[in-house]
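Consortium newsletter contribution from the modelling node. Members have asked for a concrete example of what our holo predictions look like. Here is one, prepared for the pyridoxal-5'-phosphate complex that several groups have been discussing at recent meetings.
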Amino acid sequence: MTSSFPLARTEVEDLQAYSAPLEGRRGLLRLDFNENTVGPSPKVLEALRAIPADHIAIYPEYDGLREAVVANLCAPRADGTPALAHPLSPDQIGLFNGVDAAIHAIFHAYGDSWQTLLTTSPTFGYYSPCARMQGMVIEAIPYDGPAFAFPLKAIRKVLLDEPHPRLLLICNPNNPTGTRLAPEVILELAAAAPLTLVVVDELYEAFTGDSVLPKADFTATPNLVVLRSLAKTAGLAGLRIGFAIGAAPVVERISRVTGPYDINSFAVTAALAALADQPYTDAYVAEVLRARDWLVAQLRSAGVRHHAAGGNYLLIWPANPAVEVGRRLREAGILVRSMAGKPLIDGSLRVSIGTSEQMQRFWEAYQAADLSATP
Ligand SMILES: Cc1ncc(COP(=O)(O)O)c(C=O)c1O
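And here is the predicted structure:
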């Protein structure tokens, strides 16, 4: 049968678009995308308001942003000790239109038909479509047991067996299970598999402090790439800005497959202001961690099945059907994310953590939506 329109590449014809329920969320308490729930630093807003009209009329300029990322990552700790054992240089920082765009570019630059993506399951939903659009084979190893432990033995086996996977994607802490993996283990995996590009998605690292960066040596381990974003902690999700950090020749190759102006001027201005106001981000992260401890204590004392590990999110298994509880929460003005259909966690809700006040509001609504309702 012939079609009335031009067909795309075979891999694209077989692909389902990555879709997330992103519409109609304004005005609600959004605990469904792990975003910052209070917005960026006032200094970011000030910088955006000060953008002159001609900066909108001309193409963006990126000078100084890579340097600012380096300065932010290399800033010495409170006790004066260096943050990184091997300091970074600006050519080790790739700029992308969100970490999503960095992930897409990595697959585009490094993933070829019939090569293997090794990753875990369940994990962040954008890795698989990126692998599929390249025609890659996906080997997704399930997390282990009721605590969703990292399946290290199985990952190591596939990684070291021939043919070696082309890409290993580790989300640390993992979205949505929160699973944490010690940075030393990741560095050891990367060193043991020089033919595999080992990508560590550290989007939620600020909530655990488990980064590989303090000890990473990209000269000795040039097959390691680290992803960081200002979306979830600094509150810039709407502006789209993310970073890929690695050996300069690898970062340069990943950047080859993006357009010259993929990051817009607003994102650049906002990123510079956000990076310069690290105390704002640190205070937000500390508040989220306080709110998470409080919510976990409520869930525990009410006997609600839940799983909280790394990240600004946790999983809850309601007594009533999750879809119904999600619908009742929405009626109360609160959005959470259903994990329906996800391996190992089907039937759970992923709840993003915001401020203590927001979690108190969530907890009241949750009790009405599930605990006081008959299953
Ligand atoms: C694990 C993980 N990686 C990457 C992304 C995308 O981040 P960004 O908003 O920077 O594109 C997300 C967003 O939810 C995520 O959860």
